Amino acid sequence: MKVLRAADHKRMPWKNGGGETVEIAISPEGAGLADFDWRVSMASVASDGPFSVFPGIDRTLSILEGNGMRLLIEERDPVLLTQESEPLAFAADIAVSATLPDGAITDLNVMTRRDTVRHVVERLKIDGGRSEELAQATFMLFCASGNVTVHAGTERIELSAGDALLFEDSKGDRLSLDGRALFYAISIDRAEKP
How far is the C-alpha of 131 from the C-alpha of 107, rounded, in Å? Predict the structure, then answer.
């Protein structure tokens, strides 16, 4: 289990040079944009434009701050993604462009290499207590807003906005959470071979 504090996240330019991304975690550790298995990051988007293309990658996008982003995804109807929207999954190797109908936004971006791993992102609110079972080999809790206390075995970890908790090889473990927060549960597992 690793605690990933907001102040320690790595800042870097977008692949297409159009902005800055904040890398929360990447696997394998130290991988670059061309050779990661999975990557979780945040980005501030301040202007309309195309997304970077990542061959062989699937991505899921969620809006953390701002008034929404309209996405034009190849062969799909346009979609307006807001803070209240469920996470949106789509391929990262097709043409995608974004417009900002009402100003800049910050998004959460989860990407996995299609032939190696797969992911699921859930948007969850907590007001009190709840329990989570770690159903996948790799699991991350990302606190988007508020505060949450995570009890994992004998450990007690406080998470605030921007903090994350990464579990690896913890399948079957249970967590209990207390607090008032909006968070994202990110499950990552090996892709099934055809």
Answer: 26
List beta partners, residue 141: 165, 185
Compute φ and ψ for 77, nearest 5 degrees: -65, 150
Please list the alpha-helical segments (H only) found in 155-194. none
Domain spans in the chain, listed from the N-terminal domain onward: 9-115, 118-190
Q: CA 23: distance to chain centroid?
A: 10
- Is the bond into 78 cis (omega within 30 degrees of 0)? no
- Distance between CA atoms of 100 and 66, rounded to whole angstroms? 9
Query: Residue 170: what pLDDT?
Result: 72
The CATH architecture that domain 9-115 belongs to is Sandwich (2.60)
Which token pair is 191? 């892709």
Find, among 147, 179, 180, 187, the residue nearest to 163 by Cα.
147
Tell me the pTM: 0.92
137 pLDDT band, cuts 50/70/90, is confident
**CATH, domain range 118-190:** 2.60.120.10
Distances (CA, A) of 8 to 24, 29, 132, 143: 8, 15, 26, 15
pLDDT-based confidence at 149, cuts 50/70/90?
A: very high
- Residue of 62, 70, 107, 64 whose CA lies nearest to 89: 62
The values of phi and psi at residue 7, to 5°, are -65, -20
Residues in the chain: 194
